[in-house]
TrEMBL record:
Residues 6-116 form the Saccharopine dehydrogenase NADP binding domain. It holds the Pfam family Sacchrp_dh_NADP. This is Saccharopine dehydrogenase-like NADP-dependent oxidoreductase. It comes from Orenia marismortui. SUPFAM superfamilies: NAD(P)-binding Rossmann-fold domains. InterPro entries: NAD(P)-bd_dom_sf (IPR036291), Sacchrp_dh_NADP-bd (IPR005097).
Amino acid sequence: MGKKALILGGYGKAGSYIAELLLANTSRIEIIIAGRNLSQAEVETKKLNNKFHRNRVSALKVDAGNLEELRGAFKLCDLVIVSFPYRDGQERIVIESALEAGINYIDLNADTEKYQVLQEYSKEIEEQKLIFLTGAGIIPGCPAMLAHLVGDYYDSIQKMKISSLYRDKNIPYGGVYDIISHSGKTALIYKNDAWQKASPFTMKKIKFSDKFKTRIAVPVYLSELEEIPKKLNLEELSTYQGGINPFVDAIYFIWKTLNLSHLESTLNLGVKLFSWANKYFTRPPFGLALKIEAFGKKNGSVENYSILLEHTDMYLATAIPVVAAVLQIFDGEIKKVGSNFMGHVVASRGYLERLKELGMEVTIDNF
């Protein structure tokens, strides 16, 4: 029996790629492109139906802040994919509506408020045997997945470092808003059995790949990694984000250091400045890289181990892990019900292979 997936924000960059990959890689899933702007949803729907020569895509007007529209929309699908950053309390309305409709749920953002709502309803989600995946995509999403994979490789593991880099001179407004709105989040590093505040001046040179070379990176913190040190018995875990260009990096550093994102006026100014500097000063190579490096013991020998994920398009790189997770849900491969970070329930060699099949470049080194 066929399944239906509704993509909220389906005419955005990430949402459009998710729809396209689902249509290209399975014949049993129908797609609903949904959002506030019906005309944009209809344009995207027509494009996808023309490309794949079958009417498997439909358009629907759905405002994520409108309870009645959400209720009506969620009656039509088996799973909702939220491909835009929440604002103004939308996370509660969407999550409650999905739970009420009894459908599975995936989101692509890292909003703190959303985690709190999911925690509030975690017992009810589990009792209904629903799968709610949060923080899906490449970043967040894949860091926790890679951490589990590397942890499974070693007999014992001491240190782990996760580094990411993205470059795209045409990041849309919503993407930039998401970056700046989270700029004030405190960076943490795990060592001495505790997460500790990292100075924004603690920069490192990270050798990403032959394509992206060595870049200066600053420490960041990802909520999906909070439990990883205890689960893997790690001595140290650090996460770094590479720069985009000197002007963008300076704007981000100022907004982060002075915590300017907490006021709407300075947040909007930061978004405008970031967008301008990114558009006019970001140079090739474009794309995204996510690298995990670890140090531990395997069969009595000390080994270094790394996995690199790369793609030339950062939005396609975001869509690929989401689609891989959707396929695992519909194939019954994800057994853990309840509310979970995506990276904690898809960690398997099969998932990594599926990323490769969908177009992700994967490089594994152990030495």
